[in-house]
Amino acid sequence: MVQKNLIDGEWIAGSEAFRNINPSDTNDVVGEYARASAEDARAAIAAAKAAFPAWSRSGILERHAILRKTADEILARKDELGKLLSREEGKTLAEGIGETVRAGQIFDFFAGECLRLAGEVLPSARPNIGVEITREPVGVVGIITPWNFPIAIPAWKIAPALCYGNTVVFKPAELVPGSSWAIVDILNRAGLPKGVLNLVMGKGSVVGQAMLDSPDIHAITFTGSTGTGKRVALASVEHNRKYQLEMGGKNPFVVLDDADLAVAVEAAVNSAFFSTGQRCTASSRLIVTEGIHDRFVAAMGERMKGLVVDDALKAGTQIGPVVDESQLNQDTDYIAIGRQEGAKLAFGGELLKRDTPGFYLQPALFTEATNAMRISREEIFGPVASVIRVKDYDEALTVANDTPFGLSSGIATTSLKYATHFKRNAEAGMVMVNLPTAGVDFHVPFGGRKSSSHGSREQGRYAAEFYTTVKTAYTLA
Ligand code: ADP
Questions:
Q1: Which residues are the active-site residues?
Q2: What are phi and psi of 350, to 5 degrees?
C-alpha cells in the first residue's frame, strides 16, 4: 500500500510513488510513498494559507490537547516507531527508540508551552499610555528536513510551529519518509483541523524548490547541507521571508594531557562514530595534546576493535550501516583523500560484509592529520575521524576554532581552568566538557555559529523567537 501525502486534510496518492529501502538490508523495502509534485506543493501551501486565520486564533486548550495527544501516542508506540526509524535510516534500535522518545518529549514540552504563552505590559515614556508586547504567529511555515534524524528534527520544527499558531507545509527527506508520515498521521488523528499541517513527500529540487519559490510561505526552517541552505537563504531574501538554517559541522573534540583517558576515549568514540557518524554534532576532528597523544591513539584503537558494526535491528549492534550508497561513496572517497593528503589510516575504513546486503563500513581513524587537510576542513558525515596532534591547550583552542563551522565543540580535561576558558572561547553554539559533542537535550537551545547555522535557536523556549513575531501595541488610558 502506498502511503499518501496529506493536503488540506485529504490523503492524496498522486501519480508516482517511491520506495523506502532499508540500508541494513537493501532487499527489504520499508514501504512505498506517494511522490508529491510541484502542483501538490502549491495546493498544500494554499491549504495552509486558508487554514491560518482560524488556527492562529484557536484556543490554547485545543492546541495543547492535540500536541499532548501526539506526545502520548508517540511515547506509547516508541518501540514500533523506533524500529521503523532504525529500519529506514540505519541507526541502531536503541538509537532509534531513543530518538522517538525525544520526539515524544518535544511534543509534550510544546503542549505545555501552549499554556504558558505570555507577553509584557510596560508603561510608555509618555504619561497615561500603556504598552503591550505580544507574540503572534508568523503565518505559513515551510519545514524542510534531512534524513539523519527522521523523527526528532520534524518534531522539533512541527511542534513549536503548531504551538504558536502557525500552519505548516512539511517536506521530509526522500530517504526517510516513514517516520515523518507516522507523525503526520498521529497529529492528523489527534484532531488538527484540515490544512493546518500538510505533508508533501518528494524531491528537494521539485517540492522543496516549489516551497522556496512561493510568496505564500512566510517562514522556512531548514536542516540539511550548506549548499541547499544557501538556496533557502537566497530565495527567502527574494521573498522577504524569515528563515532559519541548520547546516554542516566540523566539530572539534579536544583532549588535553590532564584528561581522564577513559572518559576522553568514550566521549570521542561516541562523538565520532555513534549513529554512524551521521550527526551534525558528530566530531571528526580529535585535537590531542602531545603528552597524551600516543596513549589516546592506542586506547582508541583498542576501543574501536570492539565496536560491533552490523544490521541496525540486530541485538548487540553498536554501529549501524551508512544510510545509502551515495553517502557510502562519499565516506570512502574521503578516506582515499585523507591517505593522498598524507594522513595515516590507523584503524578501520574497510567495507564490511554482513548476512544481508547493506552499506557497512568499519569506522575509520586517521592519525598524523593536519587541520589544513580536506578531511579536517570538509564535512564527511560518516564514521571517519582524524587525530590532530598539538603542543598545548592554546594551540588546541586555536585549531578547534580554525574552521568555517561552529555548531558544537568538546573538550576532555580535569582542569577547571581550561574547561572554563574553553566554554568561554570555543566559537560554537554548543560546548561539551568531558561529554560527547552530540547529545543535546530536547528542552534546551540547539544551534550554531558561523557557516553552521543562521537565525535564532531551535528547541526549548528559544524556539518562540523563530515561530512568532513580536507586536508592540499602545493604548491611551
Ligand atoms: P543532505 O545532504 O542532508 O541530504 P540536502 O540539503 O540535500 O542535504 O537535503 C536536505 C533537505 O533539503 C531534503 O529534504 C532535500 O530534499 C531538501 N532539498 C534539496 N534540494 C532542495 C532545493 N533545491 N530546494 C528545497 N529543498 C531542497
A1: 246, 280
A2: -90, 150
Q: Which of 144, 179, 226, 228 has most ligand 1 atoms within 8 Å of CB, for mutation?
A: 228
Q: Mean pLDDT over all residues of the chain?
A: 98
Q: Put the strands of the sheet holding 10-12 in their side by side order.
A: 10-12, 5-7, 197-199, 167-171, 140-144, 219-223, 242-246, 453-454
3-state SS, residue 101: helix
Would you kindly state where each structural domain of the chain is located, as residue ranges? 2-247+452-476, 251-433
Cell (9 digits) for 471: 507586536
Among 196, 194, 198, 241, CA closest to 216: 241
Partnered with residue 20 across adjacent β-strands are 31
pLDDT tens track for 94-145: 999 999 999 999 999 999 999 999 999 999 999 999 999 999 999 999 999 9
CA distance 231 to 245: 11
What is the rounded CA–CA span in Å between residue 70 and residue 66? 6
For 251-433, the fitting CATH number among 3.30.1120.10, 3.40.50.2000, 3.50.50.60, 3.40.309.10 is 3.40.309.10
pTM of the model: 0.98
- The CATH superfamily of 2-247+452-476 is Aldehyde Dehydrogenase; Chain A, domain 1 (3.40.605.10)
The Å distance, Cα 169 to ligand 1 centre, comes to 15
Name all residues whose Cβ lies below 6 A of ligand 1.
144-147, 171, 173-174, 204-205, 208-209, 212, 224-225, 228, 231
**Can you give the three-state secondary structure of 290-344, one letter per residue?**
HHHHHHHHHHHHHHHHCCCECCCCCCCCCECCCCCHHHHHHHHHHHHHHHHCCCE
In three-state secondary structure terms, 391 is: coil
- Substitution candidate for ligand 1 out of 144, 149, 454 with most atoms within 8 A of CB: 144
- At 305-327, the pLDDT tens digits run 999 999 999 999 999 999 999 99
